[in-house]
Amino acid sequence: MSEYPALHRVSPKDSVAVALTDLTPGQTVALAHQSITIGASIQAGHKVSVRPHGPGDAVVKYGAPIGRATADIQTGDWVHSHNLASALEGDLSRASPDIGLNAPLPPSPSGPVIKAYRREDGRVAIRNEIWIIATVSCVSRTVQKLAQLAMARWGTRVDGIHAISHPLGCSQLGDDLCATRDLLAALASHPHAGAVLLVGLGCENNQLDPLLERIVPKGEGRIAAFRTQAVTDELETGMSLLAALVAEVEQDQRTDCSVSDIALGLKCGGSDGYSGLTANPLIGQMADAVTGWGGRALLTEIPEIFGAEALLLNRATSPAVYERAHSLLQGFRDHFTAHGVAVYENPSPGNKAGGITTLEEKSLGAVQKGGSSPLVDVLPYAQIACRSGLSLIEAPGNDAVSSTALAAAGANLILFSTGRGTPMGFMVPTLKIASNDKLKAHKPNWIDFDASPMLHGEVRAEACRNALLEHILAVCEGARTCAERNEERDVAIWKRGVTL
After folding, report:
1. Sheet with 255-258: strands ordered across
2. Is the separation of the CB atoms in 321 and 376 below 8 Å?
3. With b meaning 16 or more CB within 10 Å and e meaning fewer, what string describes 337-371?
4. pLDDT of 1 over the 50 cut
5. In what order do the strands lie in the sheet containing 160-164?
6. 295-319 pLDDT, tens per residue?
7. Residue 489 contacts residue 425 (beta carbons within 8 Å)
8. At what angle do helices 458-476 and 279-292 cross, to 10 degrees?
9. Average of pLDDT values for 85-109?
């Protein structure tokens, strides 16, 4: 990162700047028209005070408070957990001066054309796969064995044959059971699954028939199911049903579709001090481009919006959307406090090592993934998103749970920013975007794209934006992500109820 300036301030209002290289005591660095003498060793990605703060003073980054000083802070001091604390409380403000002013944007007719699969219900898929779904944990190994056998036999005839296994489906009651059933039904309805084989046990709470009733129809011969307790050899039965599904799915062909037909899932994990400067704003610009063409962008990780809620609430397209968003955000806060957990019990140790101090700071950086488009819808967990524009999806911040929720909501691919790195992938192509060039160089088998040029000036930032869009279009037309090549396909269901 030697080409970077030493400091970067996101907003002229900010009272801190981010170090873009390691700084040493006594070093003098320039920031706009100011000369700053560094008071302590400061790692790249961490914050430097650009003006004095007293105890209780607001510390500002992204043009908004990220907490309050807990000690005297001088210009040039390192600002982190030793002198900065969250100011978040349990109740969420209802102030929303812009509500009702954000009409949904009319789509542009000029979205790029992509070669993709048009499904019977009109939705578009960028993969043509067969998904083998377990109704219950008892048959998780069975669906994994079937996927392995089927890929070895027929893997060249379709884009993939993959298992969805999980630890739930039995010993669940009420809403908790319904959430598991709805999530699996939403995944089974996904357009990437050209066909689905549902594998049950027989005696589980998550019975096959009510699950089948919730799946969006895929056409004749595209959904099969059986109960392993009812057959002599479950592998023989499964392979027989899969043979028929492969014969159907392999006939599907890519045809001309538009980017306006796709949905982007927006996700960050293992964030660092650069995430809010490079990768997340870059993802937000991709979200704005796709929604501008009439497509969908899906944002979740609700606890990682705490402290930045106004940036979304003020973009609601109607009072009804505002109320649903406010209720969802406040509901998560209430859930934390009801369990005796402070709403600011975040960032993670890895986030802090990378330079993020408070949840407000993490959230203000994270919500940039949602771009600047109006908020058009708010959806419960495991519901499929249908409206063009930006939608907020109910799910926690956990990487596997929230990414599974994005896939279930209909995301065709997930743009996943990271400053620390993670190998995880999910049921839809997951494109890993590094916030810094060191991560891309260190983990080239994990990282698909480097967002660090976003700090190199507008010319290189524009080239970076164009390159990522081209990469997204290539993935839409079949190019595989690192996670796909590494066969990383995680599924995690949000468990909230009692277990018998």
Report:
1. 124-125, 113-118, 255-258
2. yes
3. eeeeeebbebbbebbbbbbbbbbbbbbbbbbbbbb
4. no
5. 160-164, 129-134, 193-200, 223-227
6. 999 999 999 999 999 889 989 999 9
7. yes
8. 60
9. 69
- Which candidate, 237, 209, 270, 308, places its Cα nearest to that of 45? 270
- Amino acid sitting at position 278: T
**Is 175:205 a contact under the CB 8 Å cutoff?**
no
CB 172 within 8 A of CB 166: no
Helical residues (DSSP H) of 80-155, grouped into ranges: 140-154
Say what the pLDDT of residue 453 is: 95
H or E stretch at 235? helix 234-249
Residues 6+ apart with CB under 8 A from 420: 270, 271, 272, 350, 351, 353, 354, 439
Which pTM does this prediction carry?
0.94
Supply 182's token pair: 């709805």
Going 322 to 267 to 191 to 244, the CA torsion angle's sign is negative
CA dist 1 → 5, 72, 108, 438, 452 (Å): 9, 31, 37, 8, 9
**Cα first-last separation, the chain:** 54
pLDDT tens digit sequence for 114-137: 999 999 999 999 999 999 999 999
Interval 162-210: pLDDT, tens = 999 999 999 999 999 999 999 999 999 999 999 999 999 999 999 999 9
Residue 344 has pLDDT above 80, yes or no: no
CA atoms of 497 and 408, how far apart (whole Å): 20
Instruction: Say if strands 413-418 and 430-434 run parallel, antiparallel, or are unpaired.
Output: parallel
pLDDT of residue 76: 95
Based on its alpha-carbon atoms, the radius of gyration of the chain, rounded to whole angstroms, reads: 24
